[in-house]
Flagellar protein FlgN (Metabacillus rhizolycopersici), 161 residues
Amino acid sequence: MAVGNLIETLQKLLQLHQNLYKVTLQKTESLKSEKVEELKELLKKEQMFVQAIKQIEAERIEITSKFLDRSEELTLSACIEKAEAEEKETLQRIANDFNETMDKLKATIQINRELTQQALQFVSLSLDMLMPQESFTNYQRLDGNKAQTEKVRRSLFDSQA
């Protein structure tokens, strides 16, 4: 019966990872279309899935420990080696599905990371264009008060015209 519980737990874990993948795909679309409110909601969903995955993973570790009769190297490969014929096939199919889902999830997360970095670079560039740093090319203070002059930002529009 332990292997039945293990398979059930692994299927729950796989389903959660697949749902997380769907959320990351939606997140990619939100990043592309700059929908900030939708992105906030997707981040909340993503956090919920991550928490659920942590809980189910703790269950999986406990069940796997009982099934393998040990407390280290609680891998799916070790479970496949110990399982009998039909259960071995089921575990192998789950392992293949996990590998496929995790590869897609990693790729999508990398794309989201790059899109986020590009958006941050764009915002930073826009702010620098609107509020450029004032440069002192001729003379500077000799009393070591350089830090204060570097923090001064000048607006693009001069309000004292």
User: Anything to note?
Assistant: The mean pLDDT is 85.
